[in-house]
Structure to design on (131 residues):
């Protein structure tokens, strides 16, 4: 089973000073060596990916607890828009269905409560795995 088949993947991005920041994300297979997910342009992930493409990925649960017996995989990631984002969006909606609507509603509600709205799923991320 590839990382694109996992329900959640722990994505670790890196701050400018090299500090790792791990976040569980949904993932979809995009090809033999690529997985994708969507995020917000206002998210920390997007901001960190804007300055470094270095990431690690590892299967996990919704809370970010890694699967036993799995190891982190060094990879690269890039932010995408347009047609590539649409491909990711369709794959995510196909795989996760109704949950995409629930998370969008929760994100909107959280933005209203915190008075800090950020766009929902307006950027795609393509993670390229090593050969």
């Amino acid at each position: 089973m590839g990382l694109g088949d996992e329900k959640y993947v722990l994505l670790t991005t890196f701050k400018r000073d090299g500090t790792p920041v791990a976040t569980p994300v949904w993932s979809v297979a995009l090809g033999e060596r690529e997985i994708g997910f969507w995020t917000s342009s206002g998210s920390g992930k997007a901001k960190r990916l804007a300055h470094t493409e270095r990431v690690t990925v590892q299967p996990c649960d919704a809370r970010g607890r890694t699967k036993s017996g799995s190891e982190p995989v060094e990879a690269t990631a890039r932010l995408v828009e347009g047609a590539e984002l649409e491909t990711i969006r369709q794959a995510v909606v196909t795989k996760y269905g109704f949950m995409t609507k629930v998370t969008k509603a929760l994100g909107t509600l959280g933005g209203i409560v915190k008075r800090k709205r950020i766009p929902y799923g307006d950027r795609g991320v393509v993670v390229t795995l090593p050969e």
Remarks:
- The chain has one domain: 3-128.
